[in-house]
Every structure is written in structure tokens, then in C-alpha cells.
Amino acid sequence: MSQPETNPDCITLSDLQGLFESGIPFTLIDVREPHEWASGHLEGAQHIPLGQLLTAPEVLAPLNRSEPMVVYCQHGIRSMNAVRYLRDKGFDAFNLLVDWPSIHP
Fold first, then answer.
1. Does residue 3 belong to any structural domain of this protein?
2. Known catalytic residue at 10
3. Which candidate, 58, 60, 51, places its Cα nearest to that of 87?
4. Per the residue annotation, which of 45, 73, 83, 93 is the catalytic one?
5. If you average pLDDT over every residue of the chain, what do you get?
6. DSSP states of 61-80
7. Based on CB atoms within 10 Å of each CB, which residue in 17, 27, 71, 82 is the most buried?
8. Which of 103, 73, 101, 69 is nearest to 88 (CA)?
9. pLDDT digits over 14-62, tens only?
10. What's the CA gap between 63 and 53, in Å, rounded?
């Protein structure tokens, strides 16, 4: 996975497409709120709102630590916080740089 030089914890939509095409298993996590998830989400994503991720450690148990994780939200701030948390917990996590309103108006 290529990462932007400015932040090695980030990937782009192009990187995500390449990951899908590569067949490498990974976990896609949407950390937006339920009403945001209901308005649309990326195919194959798991929904774990950021507040739940940070306060309910049991949500980490079913996640596969051997796969990279790609995390996204509306604009990248919540997913950045989720990536920091997941990396602190030993996950190989990446922040998907996406402006959700621009791809799902």
C-alpha cells in the first residue's frame, strides 16, 4: 500500500481500490455515527462508531489483528483518532483520506 509522504498512517481512495484489487485481506471500518452510516457507506465496511470503539474494548475482540485495517469517517478527523487508538492496541491501521460528502452527496 502506498501512503502519502506527509503521513504514513494514511491511504487514499486510489490506494483502497488497489487493495481491493490485490486480493489482500483487510478490514474496512466506518467510525461515523449511526445516522451517517444509514445515509450510505462503503461496501464491505463494518460499522463501529468512534465513541463505541474508544469506550467498549469488547468491540476489538472480533477484529482480525493479522489484517491491515482501513478506517474512515466523514472528513478524516474521527478516523485519525481511531487509527491512533487501534495502533496503540497493536493493530496495523490506516486512515482513509476521503471527503465523504464528495463521493456520496
1. no
2. no
3. 60
4. 73
5. 88
6. TTS-TTS-EEEE-SSSHHHH
7. 71
8. 69
9. 899 999 999 999 999 999 999 999 999 998 999 999 999 999 989 999 9
10. 11
Domain-embedded: residue 94: yes
Domain CATH number, residue 74: 3.40.250.10
Among the ranges given (3-7, 42-46, 76-80), the one the predictor scored with the smallest mean pLDDT: 3-7
Beta bridge partners of 10: 95
Range of the domain at 39: 10-103
Residue 7 one-letter amino acid: N
In a domain, 40, yes or no: yes
Distance of CA 8 to the CA centre of its chain: 14
Residue 103, class by beta-carbon neighbours within 10 Å (0-12 exposed, 13-18 middle, 19+ buried)?
exposed
Which residue blocks in the chain are alpha helix, DSSP H? 13-22, 34-38, 50-55, 77-88, 100-103
